[in-house]
Amino acid sequence: MTTPSMLKGARERWVRTGGVELCVAELGDPEQPTVVLVHGYPDSKEVWSEVAARLADRCGFHVVLYDVRGHGRSTAPQPLRGGFTLAKLTDDFLAVVDTVSPNHPVHVVGHDWGSVQSWEFVTVGRTEGRIASFTSMSGPSLDHFGHWINARMKRPTPRRVGQLLGQGAKSWYVYLLHTPALPELAWRGPLGKRWPKILQRVEKVPGDGYPTASLPSDAAHGAWLYRDNVRARLRRPRPDAYAHAPVQLITPQGDAFLSERLYDDLDQWVPRLTRRTLPAKHWIPRTRPDQLAAWIEEFVTAVEGGRPEPAATGRHAERFGGQLVLVTGAGSGIGRATAFAFAEAGARVVAVDRDAEAATRTAELSRLIGAPEAWAETADVSDEQAMEKLAEKVHRAYGVLDVLVNNAGIGLSGSFFTTTTDDWRKVLDVNLWGVIHGCRLFGARMAERGQGGHIVNIASAAAYQPSRALPAYSTSKAAVLMLSECLRAELASQDIGVTAICPGLVNTNITSTARFTGVDETEERRRQKHSARLYSLRNYPPEKVAGAILDAVTHNRAVVPVTPEARGAHLLSRFMPGVLRGIARVNPKL
Ligand SMILES: NC(=O)c1ccc[n+]([C@@H]2O[C@H](COP(=O)([O-])OP(=O)(O)OC[C@H]3O[C@@H](n4cnc5c(N)ncnc54)[C@H](O)[C@@H]3O)[C@@H](O)[C@H]2O)c1
C-alpha cells in the first residue's frame, strides 16, 4: 500500500524490519532502473528532494528514498544503544530493496553517513547481486578508513603524519558525538535551533530549502550511528572490504569534515572506480543537485547499458567530466585548444566563433577527442543582440554553463596617434565588450542557479606591460584584467570563480589577422608575416595555455600569467615597474 508523501509527487509506504518501521518514498516509473538515495547525519530523506526530483523527472529513473531508522518518520530501535550497527542498517537496506525492486539490482547513492553505511552494503557478501552500482559522496568506508590510519601509523613519514593530523583535526565532531548525553542536549537546545542558519552561512545551503522538521530527534538518534560503529570498526577494520559493484566517488574539494587524501588508497579496494571532484563544501545534495543528478545519470546509464563507466582516470576528467563548458573564439588558436582540452576531460562543449565553419570543425573534433556532446554556435561576441540570442539558445537547449571561457579577441598594433577612433572601437568592441557580454549573459544565469561555476577571461601579458606599439590592445586587456578581479570579488559569495589568463607570445593565427595602423596594405601584410615568423620561432603552443586554463579553474586561481616572458613581466610589474617602463620607452616594437 502506498500513500502520498511530503516529497512532491512521491508515493509513500512503510517497511517493517528488525523491530522498526521505515518510511520509504518512491518517485518515477518502477519499471525503470531503481536508484536508492541514502541520507546522512543529521538529515532525513528530504535532504535528497532536489536530486530525487531531477533523477525521476529529467532522467526517468525509479527513485527510492527512505528515512534511516530513528530519523525522519522512521521509528527508532529500542534500546538505542546497539540499535544502529552497520549489520542492522544493512538489514534495513535489504528490506527496502526487496520491497521496491525485488527482481533487479539497485543503484545506491549515499551522502555522509548514508555513504558510510552504503560502503558496508557494497562490501558485504549478503548484498552481492542486489547492488548494480554505488555513488559515494562525503562518507568513507570505516574499514578503508581504519586501514588508511593503520598504514600511516605503521610507516609514519612526515607527509603521512601530516595527513593523519589533518584528518584528525577535521574529525573533532566525531569525538564530541561519542560523549554521553552532550550531543543530545545540544541538538535539542541551541544547536538544533540555529542549525539551518549555520548551514546557510557556512555552506550556503538555501535556508528555506533545508528540511528541519525532525532535526533535533534525527541528530540525537544519529549520534548512535557513531557510537555503535566508529571506534569498533576503526580499531578492527575488515581485511576483505572489497566493493562488489562499480563505484563512483564524488569528492567535494572544500569538505570541512573529510580530507581528500582519505581516498588515496581506494583503488586497492574498488576494482571499478570512477573519481569525480567538485568545488563545493559538504552538503552537495542541497548545493549542487544539477551536477550530482548529471553524474549519477551518466554512471547509472553506463552500468545499465553494459558500457565502461565514464572517465575513470585523469585529474581533469575527475573535475570536468560531464560539465557544460562554452568557449568563445573556439575556431582557432587558444580557443580551439581549450575546447579540445575540456573535450578530452569529458566535458560537454559549446564552441562559439564568428567563423561558422571553424566552430563546426572544433565541435566535430571535440566529439572525436572525447566530449560526450559538442555543439557549434556562430556569433560575433561584440554584437550584443547576437550574444543575447546565443545565451537564450544555450540556456534553453543545453543548460546553464559550469565554465565560461571568454577567449575571442583580435590584435591591433600601431602607435596612439595612428590609431583611429574606429580602430579603438573595433578592438574594444571585441576584446572588452565581448567579455562584458559573455560575463553578463552567462554569468547572470550561473549566479541565479546558485550552484557555483567558473568564468575564465583571456587577457594578456599586455594587460600589465606598457607598450608604445599596442596602446589600444593593451588597454582592452588591462580592462579585462580589472573586470575579472572586480567580478571575482562580487561572485565569490556565490561560489563562482573568476580567472584572468595572461599569455605572452603564443603561436596562433592572431599574428596573421592582427591589424597594423598607420601603414598601407602592403606594409601591413609585411608586418603580419614578420610577426607570424617571430611567433612561430618562439613556438609556444596554444595547448599549453589550454592546460593552464584547466589548472586555473581546478585551483580557482585569480590571475595566471602563461609563458616565461609573461611570468617575468608580471613579477616586474609588481616589484620593479620602472624596468618595464624603461623597456617600453626604448623598444618601439613592444
Ligand atoms: N596568441 C597570442 O600570443 C596571445 C597572447 C595573449 C593573449 N591572446 C589572446 O588570446 C585570445 C585568443 O587568441 P588566439 O591567439 O588564439 O587568436 P586566433 O586568431 O588564433 O583565434 C581567435 C579566434 O577568435 C575568433 N574571433 C575573433 N573575433 C571574434 C568575434 N568578434 N566574435 C567571435 N569570434 C571571434 C576568430 O575567428 C578566431 O577563431 C585573444 O583574446 C587574444 O587576445 C593571444
What is the CATH architecture descriptor of the largest domain?
A: 3-Layer(aba) Sandwich
For CATH, the homologous superfamily of the largest domain is named as: Alpha/Beta hydrolase fold, catalytic domain
Distance between the termini: 78 Å
Q: Order of strands across the biggest sheet?
A: 1-2-3-5-4-6-7-8-9
* CATH topology type of the largest domain: Rossmann fold
The distinct ligands, each listed once, are: nicotinamide-adenine-dinucleotide
Total beta strands: 18
Contiguous low-pLDDT stretches (5 residues minimum) are: none
Helix vs. strand class = alpha/beta
Report the average pLDDT across residues.
92
**Helix share, percent:** 40-55%
CATH class categorisation of the largest domain: Alpha Beta
Strand composition percent: 15-25%
> Which term fits the overall shape?
elongated
Number of helices: 22
Cα-based radius of gyration, to the nearest Å = 27 Å
